[in-house]
Amino acid sequence: MKKIPVKDAVGSVLCHDITQIIPGVVKDIAFKKGHIIKEEDIPLLLSIGKENLFVWEKKEGYLHENDAAERLRACAAGQGLTFSEVKEGKINFIAEYDGLLVINTKLLYELNSLGEIILVTLHNNYPVKKGQKVAGTRVIPLVIDEDKIKKAEALMEQQKIVSILPYVAMKVGIVTTGSEVYHGRIKDAFGPVIRRKVEEYGCEVLGQSILSDDENKITQAVQEWIDKGAEMVICTGGMSVDPDDVTPSAIIKTGAELITYGAPVLPGAMFLLAYKGDIPILGLPGCVMYSRTTIFDLVLPRILAKERLCFADFAAYGHGGLCNECEECKYPDCAFGKGV
């Protein structure tokens, strides 16, 4: 820190706040610590009695907070992000488009463990909207040892911490089973819910097959939708463990690879996911009909972001997988599914 005349301070960095006081009018900070003095600041500084200023003296091996924040942003940010202007060592990360927020939580922990620098984010696997703030970085001291930033850069040399995966709109085929629906005894309630939810992501529903509880016919219907160009097939009905609920076995009979049948999520425990090649086949439990938010809402954005889910992804849902079923649903701005 050094003391210099105000007239010589353009381009220098303030080491302290400067308060402006006009009796009966204002008493507030006119210039904050870390502010870079501009030519137009000089008249105001003189008017509030500042002939000299204490400014940061650039020193080899040390960085100003703003320069350090820019370097943090560059090494931490992946695809799908825009940024606020750097201010007081802080930069906000903003979603460039609708998509799935992906956080490397291990690297995030290691970065924040370095001290004097922070990166805070929304939860991993959060479905975000264009323009939404998703993360923010901040350098704590006004001046930081450059070695600390070099450690952060080395940590993230191979992988980024924050990225947004864009959704890929898919063509969807729906297979609804159940003799009661097939014979018209009750009206299908699954179809409208599924259509609404997938169309919110820009997907096209190719159509819906309504069948009795016949394993062979269900298998055939799933394959027919794939043959017609479906990039995802969603099956409803017959997902419990009752002897006449044959949808899971019918899905497996297509030759698809079973990822999970059952998941530690409530509502949504009797969920099934399988892949036939690259095509996801979902078996939805009955709760999707009547519960506002279920496992379907957790999994659908990840599938549309072209993640290929594995069993471990579902096992991790146990932490945070219990929905409070609030009277007014605020998902995704709540704890549901946020343990992963």
TrEMBL record:
EC number per UniProt: 2.10.1.1
Similarity remark: Belongs to the MoeA family.
- InterPro entries, from UniProt? MoaB/Mog-like_dom_sf, MoaB/Mog_dom, MoeA-like
Catalyses: adenylyl-molybdopterin + molybdate = Mo-molybdopterin + AMP + H(+)
Q: EC top class, in one word?
A: transferase
- Mind listing the GO biological process terms from this record? Mo-molybdopterin cofactor biosynthetic process
Keywords of this entry: Magnesium, Metal-binding, Molybdenum, Molybdenum cofactor biosynthesis, Transferase
Recorded GO cellular component terms are: cytosol
Q: What does this protein do?
A: Catalyzes the insertion of molybdate into adenylated molybdopterin with the concomitant release of AMP.
Q: Which residues form a coiled coil?
A: none
Q: Which organism is it from?
A: Clostridium tagluense
Q: Which cofactor does it need?
A: Mg(2+)
Q: Pinpoint the MoaB/Mog domain residues.
A: 173-305
Q: In which pathway does it act?
A: Cofactor biosynthesis; molybdopterin biosynthesis
Q: Which CDD domains match?
A: MoeA_like (cd03522)
**PANTHER family membership:** MOLYBDOPTERIN BIOSYNTHESIS PROTEIN, MOLYBDOPTERIN MOLYBDENUMTRANSFERASE
How is this protein named in the record?
A: Molybdopterin molybdenumtransferase
Query: What one GO molecular function would you report for this record?
Result: metal ion binding
Report if keyword Transferase is assigned: yes
